[in-house]
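Researcher: Let's do a round of design. I'm pasting the structure tokens now; please hold your answer until I've finished.
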């Protein structure tokens, strides 16, 4: 995974060199971006030597020197799209102010606006500057916007004062980055079978029955479980999504195919998560030739498909089974019903009519229904965060069932 490390002009800038090393231990590819004032404290050469990559020092060249070329002028967009996370350590009061107010004056502040990757800031400054209402309001704005703040430590500061404002330790910052990226290694050794996307039930060679599932929830689960060290088998209906690196990807089309793919592999998995929106019915007959238009009405006879989750629930080989309930009404009743009927350990329910939940969104609003009767409602979160919460619960269930 790639991260950009923004280094800004504070005495603590020298600590960023050690941070680069620590992040590399997590197999992260680090691209350093320095503000002009950071270069007064530490040279780009140090970071170039540590990372083996050119350090980005600014968007435009100094007045009077060679003009910026097209490449460097659009580089911030390329970097913005390439990175999985933007970390700024140390973050001065100045850069926090720029981020909070959307001021894009140099490469780093422009990168902040241009990237959709999560952002982590580790502020470091004089105690009075840190405690100043302006800084605290900027921090509050950034937190509200979802920026992760690694609070500074208390202690002796370079300015001779004692108080809050010292850059958090390298270990604390590195841990936070790993947490945000979902690199927790707590699923190492486990095989997790995940289904995703819709199924397609053919009527004739050109027509089929399907649903509005995008596969985003299942793919987020695959990505999250993979980053946490699991061996992931992703059985996927047709989607347009990028296949997450490092997962065993098994494409399927109809429910019957998904059923076969899942049942062949379920026994060797410790966890099965059925995030796919599996068709409950399929055409009773499939026509080899395209059906022709006729006058009058047309009736399509449907027959039930195998309920994959319920079958696994009956045959259970000691795995943890997680099902989904995407509903438009009576969410709780149907989730409780599925928990019992399908023999699942947990049902993840959502009301797909809610804004920011359900199909083809990047966020979801879910409630977990657990066997012990607990019902846990989460706020609106990205599907990646929901995925990590599901995996946290799976680990908890495993711990209690030992
Ligand atoms: O019964 P319903 O389709 O609403 O249940 C949803 C849950 O059951 C999901 O986890 C879905 O993946 C799973 N399911 C299944 N096989 C089916 C239908 C649904 O495994 N035929």
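Researcher: That's everything. Go ahead.
Model: Designed sequence:
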């Amino acid at each position: 995974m790639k991260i950009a490390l923004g280094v800004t002009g504070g005495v603590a800038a020298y600590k960023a060199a050690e941070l680069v090393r620590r992040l590399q231990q997590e197999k992260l590819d680090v691209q350093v971006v320095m503000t002009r004032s950071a270069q007064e404290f530490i040279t780009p050469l140090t970071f170039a030597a540590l990372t083996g990559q050119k350090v980005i020092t600014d968007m435009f060249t100094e007045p009077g020197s060679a003009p910026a070329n097209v490449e460097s002028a659009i580089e911030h967009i390329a970097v913005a799209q390439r990175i999985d996370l933007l970390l700024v350590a140390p973050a001065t009061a100045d850069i926090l102010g720029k981020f909070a107010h959307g001021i894009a004056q140099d490469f780093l502040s422009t990168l902040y606006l241009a990237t959709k990757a999560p952002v982590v800031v580790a502020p470091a400054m004089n105690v009075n500057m840190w405690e100043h209402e302006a800084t605290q309001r900027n921090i509050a704005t950034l937190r509200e916007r979802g920026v992760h703040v690694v609070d500074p430590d208390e202690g002796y500061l370079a300015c001779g004062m004692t108080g809050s404002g010292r850059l958090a330790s390298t270990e604390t910052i590195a841990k936070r980055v790993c947490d945000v990226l979902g690199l927790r290694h707590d699923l190492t050794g486990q095989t997790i079978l995940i289904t995703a996307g819709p199924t397609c039930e053919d009527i004739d060679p050109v027509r089929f029955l399907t649903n509005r599932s995008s596969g985003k929830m299942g793919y987020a689960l695959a990505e999250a479980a993979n980053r946490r060290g699991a061996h992931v088998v992703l059985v996927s209906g047709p989607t347009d999504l990028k296949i997450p690196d490092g997962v065993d990807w098994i494409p399927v089309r109809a429910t019957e195919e998904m059923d076969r793919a899942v049942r062949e592999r379920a026994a060797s998995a410790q966890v099965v998560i059925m995030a796919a929106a599996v068709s409950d019915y399929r055409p009773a007959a499939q026509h080899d030739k395209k059906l022709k238009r006729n006058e009058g009405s047309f009736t399509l006879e449907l027959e039930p498909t195998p309920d994959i989750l319920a079958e696994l629930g009956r045959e259970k080989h000691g795995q943890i089974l997680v099902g989904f309930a995407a509903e438009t009404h009576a969410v709780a009743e149907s989730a409780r019903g599925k928990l019992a009927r399908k023999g699942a350990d947990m049902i993840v329910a959502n009301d797909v009519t809610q804004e920011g939940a359900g199909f083809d969104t990047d966020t979801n609003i879910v409630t977990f229904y657990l066997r012990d009767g607990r019902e846990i409602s989460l706020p609106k979160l990205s599907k990646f965060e929901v995925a990590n919460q599901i995996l946290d619960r799976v680990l908890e269930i495993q711990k209690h069932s030992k």
